[in-house]
Amino acid sequence: MKLNKVFWGAAALAGAVAAPAVMAEGFSIGLGAAVGQYAYKGVDNDTLPYPMINYEGERFFIRGTGAGAYLLKDSRNQLSLNLFYSPLNFDPDDSNSRRMKLLDKRHSTAMAGLGYRHMADWGIVRTSLSADVLNYSNGYVADAAYLYPFDFGALTLTPGIGASWYSGNFNDYYYGISGKESRRSGLSQYDAGSSWSPYAEISANYALTQSWKTFAYARYTRLDDEVKDSPMVDKSYTTLFAAGVSYSF
Hints:
Blueprint: H1 3-18, E1 26-36, E2 46-56, E3 60-63, E4 66-73, E5 77-86, E6 109-120, E7 123-132, E8 140-147, E9 150-152, E10 155-166, H2 168-175, H3 179-185, E11 195-207, E12 212-222, H4 225-228, E13 237-248
Antiparallel strand pairs: 1-2, 1-13, 2-3, 3-4, 4-5, 5-6, 6-7, 7-8, 8-10, 9-10, 10-11, 11-12, 12-13
């Protein structure tokens, strides 16, 4: 099992547990499984188990492979400095395409930036802006979403819709093909520009007891033409599913 796949699953599970608008303060551990559909040509889906750790405090938080500090936190608003692992990567050895195997690696990275949430009776607005701090892509990612939680006692369902913007540098690193790669692999040279990708997601959290909870998360993302047109890509969308159980102390 490759380490970046472990991190990828932990990031997916963090999204499943952290999806509720307001998390109770405290410490929890979780175990589950995640499966993701990759956009890269010839790369199979993964289904693997992952552990995770979460902490929610008055000023600081840890959510799986991410952490942050609140600049503002009250019953309606959360403004935070965020640092998190971005699991997107490409390993030529993972592809069953002969030409894809001749491309360079694209590394996962760490992203840092600002996140803001506003909670109201009419729903939740979630936004973020982050940058690649390891300088693999020198790119930026922005995200905005609207969510509305439905409370059924022990069960909470939170559907949402949103869109992510990726800078040209970010897309070109992960989906572009240089002239050198083109000559080596036979794939056409490609320069990717910035893109918008709309998505729909839903999370479910069910309290078995005061301490034990189960969770599930799913997201469907529609890829922009700047990504779909890359010779590295053979899909028009990606999907992500995660589910598991957590224990709160």
